[in-house]
Amino acid sequence: MKATRVTNSIRPLRFAHGEMTQAALAEQVGVTRQTIIAIEQGRYSPSLEIAFQIAHVFGLPLDEVFQYPALKGPSPTTD
Amino acid sequence: MSFEEKKAWAYAAIAVIGYSVYLAMVFTAGSFRPLTEVDYAPLMLATIGGAIVAGILTGIAIAVAAPKNERQADQRDREIERLGEHVGQAFIVLGGVGALVLAMLQSEYFWIANLLYLGFVLSAVVGSAARLAAYRRGMPTP
């Protein structure tokens, strides 16, 4: 069972940032290492606040860390 | 395995073991007479009390064994805790409604008390199972 449709690039980003450990990222964000593992594996969709905190650790905008697949159907239009 | 997940395993095990011990004692005491004549109250109070003490001691033991930085519950732990409480609560309500029906039918106190106890045990076991499933497989999405 995939618990969430939110995907993320945390794992490659950690390696790109000096092979940051899950424990180090967890400490900076203020969550447990198990929560970082669950987020990486797609078993937990973090709150917006935690998602922003993770993105800030990597110095990236939110959508470069977290992705959400587009739903089928017409895309929203702006008038 | 996180600190909170270990506690969920422990509480589920304590609930199952405590209730099994209670049932064994009641059936042993009732082997030569009707179950409703068994003096169940001291047995029930002893197993409930024992489960509470075992839960507290196990919680302390798990906390002592865990590294300091992993003892704190985070947002995910709290969300999973709420899910477990929500799932478990249904069985307390079912036990309460069942006991109400039995009282209206003027059933023996034995059955009313035991149905309520079963409701508490199922609440603890199913609530813990929901927590463990959320830790292992993820939180359900709406």
Number of domains of chain A: 1
Beta-strand proportion of chain B? under 5%
Amino- and carboxy-terminal Cα gap of chain B: 26 Å
Helix content of chain A: 40-55%
Task: Give the number of DSSP strands of chain B.
Answer: 0
What's the number of helices of chain B? 4
Residue share in helix of chain B: over 70%
**Under CATH, the topology of chain A is which?**
434 Repressor (Amino-terminal Domain)
**Which regions of chain B contain 5 or more consecutive residues with pLDDT less than 50?**
none
**How do the SSEs of chain A run, as a string of H and E?**
EHHHHE
| SS strand fraction of chain A | 5-15%
Subunit organisation of the chains: heterodimer
| Average pLDDT figure of chain B | 91
Determine the N-to-C terminus distance of chain A.
Answer: 39 Å
Helix and strand composition category of chain B: mainly alpha
What is the element string of chain B, with H for helices and E for strands? HHHH
User: What's the number of structural domains of chain B?
Assistant: 1
Shape of chain B: globular
Can you describe this structure?
The complex is a heterodimer of chains A (79) and B (142). Chain A has 79 residues and is mainly alpha-helical. Chain A has one domain (7-65): 434 Repressor (Amino-terminal Domain), CATH 1.10.260. Chain A has 4 helices and 2 strands; from the N terminus they run βααααβ. Chain A has helices spanning 10-16, 22-29, 33-40, 48-58; strands at 7-8, 66-67. Chain A has a two-stranded antiparallel sheet with strand order 1-2. In chain A, helix 2 (22-29) packs across helix 3. The longest helix of chain A has 11 residues, at 48-58. Chain A is globular. The termini of chain A are far apart. In chain A, 24% of the residues are buried. Chain B is mainly α and 142 residues long. Chain B has one domain (3-137). Chain B has 4 helices and no strands. Chain B has helices spanning 3-29, 40-65, 75-104, 109-137. In chain B, helix 1 packs antiparallel against helix 4 and helix 3 (75-104) packs antiparallel against helix 4 (109-137). The model of chain B has no long low-confidence stretch (mean pLDDT 91). The chains are: A mainly alpha (79), B mainly alpha (142). The A-B interface holds A 1-5, 27, 30-35, 38, 42-47, 50 and B 1-3, 5, 69-70, 72, 74-77, 135, 137-141.
